[in-house]
Amino acid sequence: LRVEVVRQGVDCDFFRPGVERFEVELQPPVVLVVGALSPEKAPDLAIDAVAKTRASLVLAGEGPLATAMDALARERLGPDRFRRLSLEREAMPGLYAAADLLLAPSPREAGPLAALEAMACNKPVVATADSARHELVGDSGVLVEEPDSESFSAAIERALSLQWGDRPRHQALSHSVDDSAQKLGDLLCELGRKRP
């Protein structure tokens, strides 16, 4: 038995730096969380972590916890440091451009697509540490071993203080959708040749 892994890829032509910024109307720095507002994504952890920093927070998504997360964020961050948005895919590169970093606090998501999209837009990522995210993020962000609000807030402040250059973009290019499609195509061709 042979196992091959084809990693999720990102469209680095669509998600790229240099696009017009979406106006989030918040004081910088801006931390962005993208995804469903559901328990497994840990949006409450993101709110608690950002509340302990100097940053503002944009939650981009909908879900069963939307109302509760809006109330929690208004309580912890106030109206001047929080905004929740729900945008179409076409607007997402501009939203990434408006952010200083992406926060991905979910402990259960092996390869968050939002992390790849953010890095393709040359934004660093703060995420929970595990082997999949070590490979995905590489040196393009700060990974958190202890997924609690204090650790995430320290990681956010650290990420905001570093000069990232083009590292996030280069990391995303190593996970492009073109490369993933090519690998999958090669594997399918190989399997087709081995059929009896």
Secondary structure elements and pairings:
Elements: E1 30-34, H1 43-51, E2 56-60, H2 66-77, E3 82-85, H3 92-98, E4 101-104, H4 113-120, E5 125-128, H5 131-137, E6 141-144, H6 149-161, H7 167-173, H8 177-194
Parallel strand pairs: 1-2, 1-4, 2-3, 4-5, 5-6
What is the averaged pLDDT score?
92
What is the gyration radius calculated from CA atoms? 17 Å
| N-to-C series of helices and strands | EHEHEHEHEHEHHH
Gross morphology:
globular
Q: Could you state the oligomeric state of the chains shown?
A: single chain
Spatial order of strands in the largest sheet:
3-2-1-4-5-6
According to DSSP, the number of beta strands is: 6
Beginning-to-end CA distance, first to last residue: 17 Å
Keywords for this entry:
single chain; 196 residues; alpha/beta; 6-stranded parallel beta sheet; 8 helices; 6 strands; globular
Explain what this protein looks like in three dimensions.
By secondary structure, the protein is α/β, with parallel strands linked by helices. It has helices at 43-51, 66-77, 92-98, 113-120, 131-137, 149-161, 167-173, 177-194, and strands spanning 30-34, 56-60, 82-85, 101-104, 125-128, 141-144. Strand 1 (30-34), helix 1 and strand 2 (56-60) form a beta-alpha-beta unit. Helix 1 crosses helix 6 (149-161) and helix 4 (113-120) packs across helix 7. The longest helix is centred in the last third of the chain and has 18 residues, at 177-194. The chain starts with 29 loop residues before the first strand and ends with a helix. The model has no long low-confidence stretch (mean pLDDT 92).
